[in-house]
Design a protein that fits this description.
The structure is a single chain. It is elongated and about 65 Å long. α1 runs parallel beside α2, α5 packs across α6 and α9 packs across α13. β8, α9 and β9 form a beta-alpha-beta unit. Helix content is 41%, strand content 18%. The longest helix has 18 residues. It is α/β, with parallel strands linked by helices and 365 residues long. It has 2 domains: 172 residues, Glycogen Phosphorylase B (Rossmann fold, 3-Layer(aba) Sandwich), CATH 3.40.50.2000; 183 residues, 3-Layer(aba) Sandwich (Rossmann fold), CATH 3.40.50. 48% of the residues are buried.
């Protein structure tokens, strides 16, 4: 039976959370669902879900969604929408209100960020009482959700993310395409340029590496606020690169829409973030066949194992320097880890499997 689903993401940011609805929509449609979205007008979320083929109901602000509740209900009724799926905790305001006014609706919430403090006050008890299931994206966040949310365990489901692995098999970009040195081991840190992602530890580790064998560092991520980054932090990183004498050894790529092909061109991908709720960038790099070093914290150890990558203390630049030096000097080990990682992601974290599990959960009464 066809399911009519509305993804709700009232955010003007641009990160993994905001990208998620558009990422899953083509596979939802392929598996028989009809896609709708509630998003902010002019946001990248609205643009991305339109490109993914969804009908989009837009509002100017989260408050505007509450003020438009009558029109929203009419849209939901006219399109026979059965499922609402929220992606920010603040989206639960409109999601819970819609579910209370239309009891036939099933309301779901993916807790993308990893809740860090209890949410058991009066408002949260009301909002979560309307939620059919909360999806935790890792075992690490599942354990936190059990403690923090006003829900019984049976209404919290661990549902890891998945990716479409096909784009990560495309031919890699060339170094000349990227304006990078023709020789040497390429070591990258992809992700939003915001505090907490571990850029400082990573740069300090690079500064400890011997210049030979040759290597080059690459920071991948938007440099502007509208691309999800903290512009003041970006300026700090440029300053730190200069202070460490790494200006000729570290490049900033800016935002890249061709990330799969870019990841395919890299030798080592580093994810030193201290508290990843899942580690989507980790599995993207693994799918691309890169040798990955991840922080030994948060959810990253759930996806990096001894035969698929390396782990390092996110607070120790010495540990990162040691791990990097070992892989820089051993190209055969890099290839082995990358091949194993690609196979593991294809077997365990495909988008097709993720969406099938998601649709099964949507059918729960």
């Amino acid at each position: 039976m066809t399911q009519h689903i509305m993804q709700i993401c009232l955010s003007r940011g641009w990160g993994g959370l905001e990208m998620y609805p558009a990422r899953i929509m083509p596979e939802l449609q392929r598996q028989g669902a009809v896609n709708h979205a509630l998003a902010l007008s002019g946001s990248r979320v609205a643009e991305s879900v339109r490109r993914a083929g969804a009908d989009v109901f837009t509002v100017k602000s989260p408050l505007g969604a509450l003020l438009a509740v009558r029109r929203l209900l009419a849209y939901i009724d006219s399109h026979a929408i059965e499922v609402l799926h929220c992606h920010k905790s603040s989206d639960l305001r409109i999601g819970a209100l819609l579910a209370q006014l239309r009891p036939r609706l099933r309301l779901y919430f993916t807790e993308h960020m990893g809740v860090t403090r209890p949410k058991k006050g009066l408002y949260h008890r009301f909002a979560y009482a309307q939620v059919t299931r909360v999806f935790a994206i890792s075992q690490a966040t599942y354990r936190r959700n059990l403690k923090a949310l006003p829900l019984p365990p049976e209404r919290i489901l661990c549902l890891g993310l998945g990716i479409d692995t096909a784009p990560f098999q495309a031919p890699p970009l060339t170094r000349s395409d990227l304006g990078l040195p023709p020789e040497g081991c390429l070591i990258a840190l992809p992700g939003r340029l915001t505090p907490g992602k571990g850029h400082e530890v990573w740069l300090d580790a690079l500064a400890q590496l011997a210049p030979q064998p040759s290597w080059h560092g690459v920071i991948i991520g938007g440099l502007k606020a509208e691309e999800g980054s903290d512009e003041a932090y970006v300026a700090q990183l440029h300053k730190r690169v200069a202070e460490l004498g790494l200006e000729g050894r570290v490049s900033f790529t800016g935002f890249r829409s061709d990330l799969p092909q870019l990841l395919r061109a890299l030798d080592i991908v580093c994810i030193p973030s201290r508290n990843e709720a899942f580690g989507l960038t980790v599995i993207e790099a693994m799918a691309a066949g890169a040798a990955v070093i991840g922080a030994d914290s948060g959810a990253i150890p759930e996806v990096i194992h001894e035969d698929t990558g390396r782990l390092a203390d996110p607070d120790s630049c010495a540990a990162w320097a040691t791990a990097l030096a070992a892989l820089i000097e051993d190209a055969a080990e890099r290839r082995r880890l990358g091949a194993n990682a690609r196979q593991w992601v294809e077997a365990n974290l495909s988008l097709e499997t993720h969406v099938a599990h998601l649709l099964d959960a949507y059918r729960l009464a």
